[in-house]
Every structure is written in structure tokens, then in C-alpha cells.
Specification:
By secondary structure, this protein is an alpha+beta fold. The protein has 24 helices and 33 strands. The strands form eleven sheets. Strands 27-26-33-32-31-28 form a six-stranded mixed β-sheet. A hairpin with a 5-residue loop joins strand 18 and strand 19. It binds zinc ion (2 copies). One zinc ion binds next to loops.
């Protein structure tokens, strides 16, 4: 134990946190591949290296660190790797901005290099934040998806899935962002409500309503319901497209809603998913009207080269001029937009790579995983159920994992590298063999690259050591922690890829956390000015305070609103805990620690019983990842049970000498040691600091608390005693007495006596008698409370006389409501609620005050 002289009076988080950060060693958190302990591998989310570790990341990582530290204390061999998901558009855009170039100004390789350099710099910055937050990261298992080591695994997984038929390429419509100039997957489409215009126009004698007149040139058919009598005569006929003049067939389809507009709709390639469906169903031709930059193609005649918005305006003007625009109505519409830049997506047909979605096998694997909280599984199921299209994995970008494929220029055959030759950039190299089909030696490397989710969806395979040679030894991981916003992407894709590549589920458990909202309850955004930066918070209140906020802010899976008050409360708790620690350390230093000293006094036994309850409930909460419950339980014990009740009760004994003091010190030690260990996962700096004064070694190397103490009587009697003390303190307060003011004789009538070794008497400064017999109390009227707001208005000038008359009544008449009373010779009606008699009690001839607590009666001599 460290001498209490060295104990600073105040807890200075800045000094303490920095000191421990410089003391702790990375090696202590390395996963041990030779360990005999059970493994606990975490499939940590690899954040996008923007350079800023945002508050949502912080919440996510706090949860991970809570259970990583807890599991280590529980004897697990924990792997808490740190990944970085590098590839993607935001970095490309940033590089363009910073260097004042566009990606086409330099070579692909040069551009990639610039992206890599920026990413490295950002990662370095984010590592510092991770360290400051005291996350117990396993840096020996760090991975960076843009490194050849990692992306050769992404490429290997591509080749394996190509071979097993999961991956195919096809000329097929896909969601496309014309601003990002790339295909995107359905999971990356977000929906926004917008107001648009529904335009009714004459289509060769049939009325058509459309929100996208610019697609008129891409019209390939007009569809009507087969049972719609209005169009019977049109069956098998064709119509002339207005303004363009080409002919399109009339097709009949059950999916047309005859009640919408005129009941006739135009099918364009492509306005929406329904168009794609009809286009396939009726084997219609393809008319590509919009190119990858969002401009009208040359089939658009005079509109060629216009943007879709310009074209829409021009066509509407021309329709008006031609007299075929009949009316326009406002329409609320849900528009699919690009999740990164919010540009409305187009459905464009082109050659893309796809992964086949086998719904049933993903559903089966999802069901074999334990979901925390359970209801998040439903979200996954809903997403699986609505999957209609395969996953488009090709992107027309640069900073990404290359698709390891060449095309034979002679016969078009797809040629792939040998697995041993990975990684490979087919735009820079040639295959080692000639074309297996035609023997040709001319190839064109695939320029499309892979969706970033193709990198990150094998994170679990990477951390468990997958190299293609079967199921890795560490697979499946024990847990995947992530936010609910990426269930349909990261969770979904990871399950898909695990099943496709290993035949099994990726993890035993998945833990889904909520999102962090600003103090105003809205999503944090720069424009709202409600963004909280973790570094700012840590600078003002320390990492431990932020970690407490993360733990207590919300139940698992619920969104959590940021609140400075919660952070301040966290910091106050640390101040309180520090005061408790100092008090305990000074006592323990005087007495020495004797873990075997007999525990005698009731309050001591009571504290151990309550400590045992707390350990049980906190441990159960930790097992279920209910961090809010766990930390609340610890705080309540420390603050209410230990500080406000126990220490107040035991102080007298601690300030005296003898066996009773030894008993109290032993209990203080148990509480102190247990609190340090239970707090270690949540506030690692603070717990380490407190523990360092108590014992040698790091609290983070101690086992999780296994403390149990069973004493039913002590729990019940102690609870009663604490209640009595609390009620009497309240009585003192209500009667304007100081808390330490002497109270005189004080009797507790309880079902059984309690031997508290004088704790109650000392705490209350009273002469306490515990009795088990029945209290003999005489009730006497000691006064009357008049309700002046009733008496005054009712009796006016007679009010005084009325009150005198009431006071003169015998006690038994006061207790029962009277109908009338004689005042100045008149019988007056007594209104309801005019007065209440006040009683006082007499016990053995002396006046006493009485407090009732359940079936316990306390009398205090006046
Ligand atoms: Zn976009
Ligand atoms: Zn060939």
C-alpha cells in the first residue's frame, strides 16, 4: 500500500490519464496464439480513415473495450484487432480537393499513391485518439485494407467466389450515381421524400402521366392492365412516341394499376425497378438515353448532351408548344439517392460484376448467430426478404481493390491470375499464360474495381487467419460489434461471404449499437452545429468521463443522445469515488489489511451482503452486454450504499480502536478492491489509479470479481437500519436540527432486535433502544390545523368564533366529522375540510414523536 501522504486531495484526470498511458504496454493486449485459454476474437469494425474518430465511432469502441477488458478479466484470450477500411470515394474526392486536380489529370497509379499517402496520414492521427481513449487495442493484429497483404485476400476471395459460381459478370441494369460516376449496390441507396411534378400528356391518343418526361426517348412500350376495357381495342397495336416519332408496342401486364391516372403507363429503360422487371418480362429492347455522367445520349436527337434536368425542362416546353401537355400536378415522391452524395440515382444498364444472393443460406446463418439485442435479427430478416437484385460489386473508380481479371482481346474469354500471383493489378500486368480458349496473347485488364464492402466483408476471415486453405483455426470469431446503420451492408455482406467461402456463420454473437444524436436530438451534422468531437470532450473531462457517458447513455441498441450533463455527472462520480478511496486508504493504512479479520458488526455484514448482490447483478449485466445496467449498479453501490450509508454508519467504529474497527476495515478493503475491478473495464485510468494505491500490479491483470457473501438476516436487518437512520435524519432536518444534534431517548419497535454494535446510536447521536414488544402509545390531540381558505370565506366575521368553538370540542368529536356546530348561539353547518386535528403521542407518560416505517415504529422523546 502506498502511504496516504502521497494521496493527492483532488483527482486530476489529465495527469493521471497521461501517466498511465505512458506506463501501459501494447504487449499486454496482444492475442496469444499459443494460449490454452478460451479464445475471444472480436471482428472489430474497420473505420474509414477520414482522420477524425467521430463520437459515433467512440461509442462503438467504448462498447468493444468494455467487453474486451471484461473478457480478459474473465480469463479469455482476447483479440481486439484494429482495422482500417481505406478504399473509397471520399478519399478520392479529398485528394482531388487538396491537390487541385481531377482524377484524370494524373495516371491511375499516381492517383492511387496520393490516396494511399493521405490515408496513412489520417490513420496515424486516428491511432492517437484510440490510445487517448484507453482502448485496449491489439496492435499486433492491426490491418489496413489498402495494403497488398490485405487486398490480396480480397482478390483471393473474389477468385474463389468466381470459381464457385457466386460471382458473375453481366450486362444488366444497376443503380448508378452519375455524380460519383459509379455503380452502387441497393444497400447504398438511401431514400428521400421530395416534391415533384406529375405531368399528364397525350401519347398518341392515350393519356400518360409521368414524373420523368426526359425518359420519353427511352420509352420502349406502353403497358395497360389486360382487364382494362378502355384499351381493349389497342391490343396488339403500337403507338407513336410524341416528339420522337418512333413506334412502341402496347403490352398487357397484371402489375399495371388501372386506377392510377389513365391506367396506361410508359415503360422506359429505366425509370425504376418496375421498368426493369417489365423490360425483362416482355423482352423489350434497350434504349440507353442517359450516360454515366448523367447526360442525354445521342439517341436523344436535339436533346443530346443536356443534363437530365435540362432535358426535362426542354421536353415539357416542347410538349406545351405541341399542345399535348394536358395538366401538371404536385406529387410527393420517395426518391432513391446515392448514400454518399445524395444525388438521385439512375438505373443504367452496363457490364457489371455481381454476387449471387442466396437468401435462404444467409437467413440460416443469421439465425445461428446470437443477436444482442435480439430484435436486430428482425431488421436483418426484413432486409433479406426484400432483396430482389444481386449485389453489384464492380465500381468505376480508382482507389480500390482491382478486379483480378483480364479479357482476351481475340475471343473475349475471362482470364484470371494464379492464386500464388496475387495481389495483381490487371491494368499494369499481363497473365502468365496464354488464353486457355483460343491461345491468344493479347489481353485487356479489367479497369473496374471492387466495391469497398468487398474488402471489409472479409474482415472476420482476415482476423481469424483465412488464407484460402480451408476453415481457419480461429474461425468463427466470437463476436461482431457494429452500428445498426450497417446491418444491411456490413453485417449482411459479411454473413454472405463467410457462408460462400467457408460454409459457416462468421461469428457466434453480434452486438448492435445505436447511433449518437446531438444534444438537440438530431443527427449530428456540421450544418446544425451540434457536432461533438471526442477530443474536445476528453480534453475537458477526460477519457474516463466520456467512457462513462457511453456506458450509461442508453440501453444496448438504442440511439443515444449526447448530453454534457451526463459527462459532468460522470466526472462528479469520479470525484465522489476519489473521496471514498481516500477515506478508505487512510483507514486501511492505520489498521493494515487483514483479509481474514472476523466480520462481526451488522452494518459490516450488511455491506458485504449488498456488495455480493451488486457483484452478481453487475456480472450478469456484463455477460449480456448491458453496460448501462452494469455501470448504474456500480455507481449506486459506491455512492448510496457505501458512501452515504455504510461509511456514515461505520465512521464511529473506524475512529475508535478494537475488533470492531478491524471488522470495518476488512469490509472497506473488500468494497474498495471489488469496486476497482468492476470499474476497470469502464474507467481504466481511474480504476488503475485507485488500485495502485491499494495493491501491487495492474488492476487490468486481476481476475473479474468472484465475491459472494450470503447473509440473509444481515441484508434484511441492515436495510431496516439504513431506513431508520435515513428517516430520522429527515426528521432532524424537518425539525431544524443539525445532523449531529443530540436526540435523547430513541426507541425502535421492530419484529426482532438488531445488534448494530452502537452504529445507529453514534450516527444519530442518540440513546437507541431496540425493542421487540408492541409500542404502547397514547394518542392525544395536540392542536388543530384550520384550513383558512375554507373557514374565512364561509364564516367571515364569525370565523374567529367558529375556530374557538372547534377548539373547545372534546377529542372524540374532533375525530368524527360534525354536521353542525353552535357558534354565538346559532347552529352553523361545518364545511368539509375546514380543519384537521393534530395528534401527538405519549409513551410511558412522556411525549414522543413517532415515525412509522412499514411495520416498524420509531419513537423519539421530545
Ligand atoms: Zn454519389
Ligand atoms: Zn481467347
Amino acid at each position: 500500500m502506498v502511504s496516504s501522504d502521497q494521496l493527492p486531495k483532488n483527482y486530476d484526470f489529465a495527469v493521471v490519464e497521461e501517466r498511465w498511458r505512458n506506463t501501459w504496454r501494447d504487449e499486454d493486449h496482444y492475442f496469444d496464439r499459443n494460449s490454452k485459454k478460451p479464445q475471444f476474437v472480436i471482428d472489430t469494425p474497420p473505420p474509414y480513415p477520414t482522420g477524425n474518430f467521430h463520437i459515433g465511432n467512440a461509442l462503438n469502441w467504448c462498447y468493444i473495450d468494455f467487453f474486451a477488458r471484461y473478457k480478459r478479466m474473465k480469463g479469455y484470450n482476447v483479440m481486439f484487432p484494429q482495422g482500417w477500411d481505406c478504399h473509397g470515394l471520399p478519399t478520392e474526392v479529398k485528394v482531388e480537393e487538396l491537390n487541385h486536380i481531377t482524377k484524370n489529370d494524373v495516371s491511375r497509379e499516381e492517383f492511387r499513391k496520393m490516396c494511399r499517402e493521405l490515408t496513412e496520414k489520417n490513420i496515424e492521427q486516428m491511432r492517437l485518439t484510440l490510445r487517448r481513449m484507453a482502448f485496449s487495442t491489439d496492435w499486433s493484429n492491426e490491418y489496413i485494407t489498402m495494403t497488398p497483404k490485405y487486398y490480396s485476400k480480397t482478390q483471393l476471395s473474389f477468385l474463389r467466389m468466381l470459381k464457385s459460381g457466386y460471382i458473375y459478370q453481366d450486362e444488366h441494369p444497376a443503380n448508378y450515381c452519375t455524380r460519383c460516376e459509379t455503380a452502387i449496390a441497393f444497400a447504398e441507396v438511401t431514400y428521400e421524400d421530395r416534391e415533384t411534378q406529375l405531368n399528364f400528356f397525350d401519347f398518341d391518343g392515350v393519356e400518360i402521366a409521368t414524373t420523368r418526361p426526359e425518359l420519353l426517348v427511352a420509352c420502349v412500350a406502353v403497358a395497360v392492365h389486360p382487364a382494362d376495357d378502355r384499351y381493349h381495342n389497342l391490343k396488339g397495336k403500337s403507338l407513336k412516341v410524341p416528339l420522337f416519332g418512333n413506334s412502341v408496342p402496347i403490352v398487357q401486364d397484371e402489375a399495371v394499376d388501372p386506377k392510377f391516372g389513365s391506367g396506361a403507363v410508359m415503360i422506359c429503360t429505366f425509370g425504376d425497378k418496375q421498368d426493369v422487371h417489365w423490360w425483362k418480362q416482355h423482352n423489350l429492347p434497350l434504349r440507353k438515353a442517359i450516360d454515366r455522367k448523367g447526360k442525354m445520349t445521342e439517341i436523344s436527337g436535339k436533346y443530346t448532351g443536356l443534363s437530365t434536368t435540362e432535358c426535362r425542362k426542354a421536353i415539357l416546353l416542347d410538349m406545351k408548344a405541341a399542345g399535348i401537355l394536358k395538366k401538371q400536378e404536385k406529387l410527393e415522391q420517395r426518391v432513391g439517392t446515392c448514400w454518399r452524395c445524395k444525388t438521385p440515382i439512375e438505373i443504367l444498364s452496363g457490364r457489371q460484376w455481381f454476387i449471387r444472393i442466396k437468401q435462404q443460406e444467409i437467413r440460416d446463418a443469421a439465425h445461428q448467430i446470437k443477436w444482442y439485442p435480439q430484435h436486430m435479427l428482425l431488421r436483418m430478416e426484413n432486409w433479406i426478404d426484400q432483396m430482389e437484385w444481386d449485389w453489384c460489386i464492380s465500381r468505376q473508380r480508382i482507389f480500390a481493390t482491382p478486379i483480378p481479371v483480364w479479357f482476351c482481346t481475340k475471343c473475349g474469354e475471362i482470364v484470371v491470375p494464379d492464386e500464388k500471383d496475387l495481389p495483381c493489378d490487371p491494368t499494369l500486368t499481363k497473365p502468365m499464360h496464354s488464353c486457355p480458349k483460343c491461345g491468344g496473347n493479347e489481353f485487356k485488364g479489367e479497369e473496374d474495381v471492387l466495391d469497398t464492402w468487398m474488402d471489409s466483408s472479409i474482415s472476420v476471415l482476415n482476423v481469424t487467419g483465412w488464407d484460402g486453405s480451408g476453415k481457419p483455426k480461429l474461425f468463427p470469431a466470437q463476436i461482431r460489434p457494429q452500428g445498426h446503420d450497417i446491418i444491411r451492408t456490413w453485417a449482411f455482406y459479411s454473413i454472405l461471404r463467410s457462408v460462400a467461402l467457408t460454409g459457416s456463420k462468421p461469428w457466434d454473437q453480434i452486438l448492435v449499437n445505436g447511433m449518437v444524436l446531438g444534444e438537440d436530438g438530431f443527427k449530428m451534422s456540421k450544418s446544425r452545429g451540434n457536432v461533438i468531437v471526442p477530443e474536445e470532450l476528453v480534453g475537458r473531462y477526460g477519457a474516463d468521463a466520456l467512457r462513462q457517458w457511453a456506458a450509461t447513455g442508453a440501453a444496448l441498441g438504442s440511439d443515444i443522445m449526447f448530453s454534457w450533463n451526463d459527462v459532468i455527472a460522470a466526472s462528479r462520480f469520479q470525484t465522489k469515488m476519489w473521496n471514498i478511496a481516500r477515506f478508505a486508504l487512510i483507514q486501511l493504512e492505520k489498521e493494515g489489511i487483514d483479509e481474514n479479520a472476523p466480520v462481526t458488526a451488522l452494518t459490516d455484514r450488511w455491506l458485504l451482503a449488498r456488495l455480493s448482490d451488486t457483484v452478481a447483478s453487475v456480472s450478469a449485466a456484463m455477460e449480456n452486454y448491458e453496460f448501462d445496467e452494469a455501470l448504474k449498479g456500480i455507481r449506486e453501490f459506491a455512492w448510496d450504499v457505501l458512501a452515504d450509508n455504510y461509511i456514515e454508519l461505520a465512521k464511529g467504529r473506524l475512529y475508535s480502536e478494537g475488533a470492531s474497527r478491524k471488522s470495518a476495515c476488512r469490509v472497506l478493503y473488500a468494497a474498495y478492491d471489488t469496486l476497482c475491478r468492476m470499474l476497470a473495464p469502464f474507467i481504466p485510468y481511474f480504476a488503475e489509479e485507485c488500485y495502485s494505491y491499494l495493491n501491487k500490479g495492474s488492476v487490468h491483470k486481476q481476475p473479474w470479481v468472484a465475491f459472494t457473501y450470503d447473509d440473509v438476516a444481515a441484508r434484511a436487518e441492515g436495510d431496516l437500519l439504513v431506513k431508520v437512520v435515513a428517516e430520522v435524519r429527515k426528521y432532524k432536518h424537518d425539525n431544524g436540527l443539525a445532523l449531529n444534534a443530540p436526540l435523547g431517548k430513541f426507541t425502535v419497535y421492530a419484529p426482532h432486535t438488531v445488534n448494530d454494535e452502537g452504529d445507529t446510536a453514534r450516527t444519530l447521536n442518540a440513546d437507541v433502544h431496540w425493542r421487540t414488544d408492541k409500542a404502547h402509545l397514547d394518542k392525544v390531540v395536540s392542536g388543530i390545523d384550520f384550513n383558512r381558505s375554507v373557514v374565512g370565506p364561509t364564516f367571515r366575521k364569525d370565523a374567529g368564533a367558529f375556530m374557538e368553538a372547534v377548539k373547545a370540542l372534546p377529542a372524540e368529536e374532533l375525530a368524527h366529522p360534525l354536521k353542525t356546530i353552535k357558534v354565538n348561539g346559532k347552529d352553523l353547518d361545518v364545511p368539509e375540510n375546514a380543519f384537521t386535528p393534530k395528534y401527538s403521542y405519549v409513551e410511558e407518560g412522556a411525549k414522543v414523536d413517532v415515525i412509522t416505517i412499514g411495520d416498524v415504529i420509531v419513537t423519539i422523546a421530545q
